[in-house]
Task: inverse folding
């Protein structure tokens, strides 16, 4: 049984074993995309954890006896299950696997205690038709194996937040079918980070890459706590059609006191400086196009620029998932089937509002 | 549109031009003036200054081109191809500046009637485009040759030559030939302009259609992307430049020719030197072969007599050849590969097509694209043949009348002829003919005309100092006239900007630090500005500077390899500067309105061809 698998060992077929996020990282590495190294704690780990420790029956027992549509008992069940998961220690096998995985990763990056991001990666998450995004947890700047284990526990427990339970109940997703994997990935020491889409999320324009970025780690952009800088670039001509620089008042950084990360203020004179150089934008656009081409669909991508590396080695992709909003609408025709003459006639009949 | 009270421009009937323009009205025909008898109609239209065709004060004779296009452009829309809701474009003069207005749609029953005609007539044109184009070019060339062949009497002979009297009198003489020749030139110009619009309105309509389809499929697609998909590489407008490249290459393969071409001599001296050797002669033969039609290219837009053309200023093509030869000797490539350009265009279109997810949409896109590609060549080619080749011939013929009038004491200089409109010139010619017929020592009114020409020159000069109001009347809610949108780029933002610039608190050009125009060619650069109002100032331009000019045209083409970016006052996304900059990958902002007055040579400016914004970063000392 594989308790952990390196990202290099994964591809899209690994989804049942490592969840959507991890599988997609492996898939990107295969496609030659620069992804920070790391490994997945497989669903097998989780499954053997809940079976071998005997907590599985307890958990599903609580869920099946829970009355539907009752907020209070939902909260109670959730708290109870999460407590069980967090309190139950890992088997030595899993622990050893994690220790080995982490020490390999540290070695690979030539760092004694490598800061990592620990992220949950559910098997039903990120499916194009049922976005579970944001329902599981992410822990940043985790150092040392004890802290990793602690956060793996938390990630596993996050499968049973009230919201996650409720979502599955409402959508008739059997709780037993959703397993969880965890990703442990080298933390990007990011100067600038953010998200990008291979479709304009505002109007569904497929010819655009939209990049949003801000100082520090990408969490401020993902959570919407800053107004990011925004770039709209044409995929075909590689022209920047729109460039908006915002005052980025806070940034998410490593917190040496408490460990983990925290938001701090950005100096006023730095707030309105563009957070990406032209060549970084171009590189991101190229990568976005590669990712979209590889998956054959519109994608939603998280990226970061590492200050410890020199461009272009500094540009990393930390996550990619299918875009779910427009991708479903795009099958309907916007124009209908019309000949050039029909279109010309329509144009000729138009009284055009003076364009704004 | 902005609300009625705040969002309107002055009533054209109440608007006063500066006192130093007094007397301007007599320079132009009466129907060009705002008038009491048409007041109700006129004051409810929206009149904006036509900076494309009349960016500068209008010399009376140069108005002929405007008169011709007002009729021709409008008739194709209203009476020939019948674009259903569209009417024509009317012109008026306010001081020596021209204002135009897209007339509101006609009554519904007329629209319906036109729709039927449109379908039948227009679809035919698209189906037979290639054959119609061949016919068009044949007749335009024939008309130009006919014009070049018009004989204009050089002088009025003391006595008519013997052979016109004996053995049989011809019956009509120079006094008649004079008037007839002038009438011919006027008529030919009007005819050329009738041809000019033959398929142009449809081209613009198809372009708007394709733009609309593209924007439906790709809501954020840029105008420059649409332009790139449509533009052709094998375009007459680029031929003059290609001919120069070929001549430069030929020179490098001949003995002793490049040394002469690279020297600092004038064109005339170079020609004299080249005549002395067989290789030089061979090169001159090639030059002569290329020059008609390809060097009949205006140094400006073709709309003004003072712009000149390559053929009359051979120093211009020779200076381009000099720099091409130098670049060839440095091992640089000077020609653009047209095949590559064509291929790139097709690849661009294919990439957009691939992005379309729905089969029906893909087919419609294909249909729209084929429709515009069928006809777009017309927009690219007609310009060279009419505005450049045909106008150049006309100007040189019309100047022969100027010489004749100078010789007969009616005006001081040849170009003073342009101070009289086309209705007045027959008056001058008739007096000359009359004086000649009356006998010897007949006094003529030369002093009267000379004074008139002087006064008008002063008015035009004063008008050049006046910052003409951008618009008059009430902005409309909607327009249906394809040229108004595509060529003049009238948009709500533009109108708002114009409104902002009026009245109290209006900023003067010297205070402006940011100017907005069309994002015509992508890229962002910063550099030193070089403001060039006339082509002859081009010698001042240093490599790596940013060109700032009222507009550009094919005769400026060789400049684009030298510059870092281009900014123009006038011109949309399909203007010459926009097209050429896209091809060279040089950032451009076009139609920036006031760039040449707000920016001074030596200013450090930033040109953002992605957003259409020009920023003045640092003023020159």
Result:
């Amino acid at each position: 049984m594989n308790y952990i698998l390196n990202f290099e060992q994964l591809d899209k077929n690994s989804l049942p074993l490592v969840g959507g996020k991890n599988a997609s990282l492996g898939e990107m590495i295969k496609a030659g995309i620069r992804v920070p190294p790391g490994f997945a704690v497989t669903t097998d780990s989780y499954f053997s954890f809940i079976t071998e420790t005997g907590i599985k029956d307890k958990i599903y027992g609580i869920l099946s006896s829970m009355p539907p549509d009752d907020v209070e008992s939902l909260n109670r069940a959730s708290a109870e299950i999460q407590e069980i998961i967090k309190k139950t220690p890992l088997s030595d096998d899993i622990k050893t696997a994690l220790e080995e995985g982490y020490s390999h990763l540290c070695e690979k990056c030539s760092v004694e205690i490598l800061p990592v991001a620990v992220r949950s990666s559910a098997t039903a998450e990120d499916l194009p038709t049922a976005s579970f995004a944001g329902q599981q947890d992410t822990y940043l700047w985790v150092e040392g194996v004890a802290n990793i284990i602690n956060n793996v526990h938390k990630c596993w427990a996050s499968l049973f937040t009230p919201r996650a339970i409720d979502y599955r109940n409402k959508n008739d997703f059997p709780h037993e079918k959703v397993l969880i994997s965890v990703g442990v990935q080298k933390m990007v020491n990011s100067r600038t980070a953010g998200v990008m889409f291979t479709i304009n999320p505002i109007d569904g324009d497929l010819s655009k890459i939209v990049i949003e970025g801000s100082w520090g780690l990408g969490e401020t952009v993902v959570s919407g706590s800053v107004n990011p800088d925004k770039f709209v670039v044409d995929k075909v001509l590689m022209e920047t059609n729109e460039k908006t620089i915002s005052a980025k008042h806070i940034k998410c950084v490593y917190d040496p006191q408490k460990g983990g990360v925290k938001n701090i203020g950005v100096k006023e004179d730095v707030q309105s400086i563009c957070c990406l150089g032209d060549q970084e934008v171009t590189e991101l656009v190229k990568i976005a196009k590669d990712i979209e081409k590889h998956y054959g669909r519109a994608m939603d991508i998280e990226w970061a620029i590492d200050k410890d590396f020199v461009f272009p080695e500094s540009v990393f992709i930390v996550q990619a998932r299918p875009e779910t909003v427009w991708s479903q609408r795009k099958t309907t025709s916007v124009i209908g089937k019309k000949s050039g003459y029909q279109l010309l006639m329509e144009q000729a009949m138009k009284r055009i509002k003076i364009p704004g | 549109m902005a609300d009625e009270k705040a969002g309107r421009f002055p009533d054209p009937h109440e608007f006063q031009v500066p006192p130093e323009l007094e007397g301007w009205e007599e320079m132009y025909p009466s129907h060009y003036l705002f008038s009491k008898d048409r007041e109700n109609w006129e004051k409810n239209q929206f009149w904006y200054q036509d900076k494309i065709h009349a960016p500068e004060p209008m010399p009376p004779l140069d108005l002929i081109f405007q008169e011709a296009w007002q009729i021709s452009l409008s008739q194709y829309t209203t009476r020939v191809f019948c674009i259903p809701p569209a009417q024509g474009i009317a012109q008026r003069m306010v001081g020596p500046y021209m204002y135009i207005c897209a007339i509101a749609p006609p009554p519904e029953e007329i629209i319906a009637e036109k729709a039927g005609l449109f379908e039948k007539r227009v679809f035919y044109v698209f189906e037979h485009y290639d054959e119609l184009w061949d016919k068009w070019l044949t007749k335009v060339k024939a008309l130009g040759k006919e014009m070049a062949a018009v004989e204009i009497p050089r002088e009025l002979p003391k006595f008519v030559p013997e052979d016109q009297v004996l053995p049989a009198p011809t019956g009509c003489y120079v006094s008649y030939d004079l008037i007839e020749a002038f009438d011919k030139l006027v008529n030919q110009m009007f005819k050329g302009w009738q041809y000019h619009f033959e398929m142009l309105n449809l081209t613009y309509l198809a372009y708007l259609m394709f733009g609309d389809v593209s924007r439906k499929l790709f809501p954020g697609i840029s105008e420059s992307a649409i332009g790139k998909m449509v533009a052709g590489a094998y375009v007459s407008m680029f031929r003059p430049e290609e001919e120069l490249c070929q001549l430069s290459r030929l020179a490098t393969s001949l003995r002793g020719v490049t040394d002469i071409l690279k020297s600092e001599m004038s064109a005339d001296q170079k020609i004299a030197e080249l005549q002395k050797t067989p290789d030089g002669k061979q090169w001159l033969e090639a030059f002569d072969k290329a020059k008609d039609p390809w060097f009949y290219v205006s140094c400006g837009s073709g709309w003004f007599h003072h712009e000149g053309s390559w053929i009359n200023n051979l120093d211009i093509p020779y200076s381009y050849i000099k720099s091409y030869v130098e670049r060839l000797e440095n091992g640089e490539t000077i020609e653009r590969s047209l095949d590559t350009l064509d291929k790139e265009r097709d690849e661009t279109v294919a990439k957009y097509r691939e992005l379309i997810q729905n089969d029906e949409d893909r087919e419609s896109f294909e249909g729209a694209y084929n429709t515009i590609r069928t006809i777009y060549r017309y927009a690219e080619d007609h310009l060279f043949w009419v505005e450049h080749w045909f106008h150049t011939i006309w100007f040189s013929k019309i100047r022969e009348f100027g010489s004749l009038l100078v010789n007969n004491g009616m005006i001081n200089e040849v170009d003073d002829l342009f101070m009289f409109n086309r209705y007045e010139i027959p008056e001058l010619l008739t007096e000359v003919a009359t004086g000649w017929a009356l006998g010897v020592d007949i006094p003529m009114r030369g002093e009267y005309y000379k004074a008139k020409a002087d006064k008008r020159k002063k008015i035009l000069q004063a008008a050049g100092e006046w910052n003409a109001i951008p618009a008059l009347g009430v902005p409309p809610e909607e327009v249906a006239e394809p040229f108004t949108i595509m060529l003049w780029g009238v948009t709500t933002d533009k109108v708002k900007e114009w409104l902002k610039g009026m009245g109290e608190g209006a900023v003067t050009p010297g205070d402006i630090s940011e100017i907005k125009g069309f994002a015509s060619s992508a890229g962002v650069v910063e550099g030193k500005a070089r403001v060039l109002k006339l082509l002859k100032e081009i010698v001042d331009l240093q490599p790596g500077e940013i060109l700032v000019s009222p507009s550009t045209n094919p005769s400026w083409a060789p400049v684009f390899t030298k510059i870092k970016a281009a900014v123009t006052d006038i011109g949309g996304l399909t203007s010459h500067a926009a097209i050429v900059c896209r091809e060279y990958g040089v950032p451009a902002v076009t139609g920036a309105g006031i760039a040449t007055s707000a920016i001074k040579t030596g200013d450090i400016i930033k040109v953002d061809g992605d957003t259409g914004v020009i920023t003045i970063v640092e003023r020159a000392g």
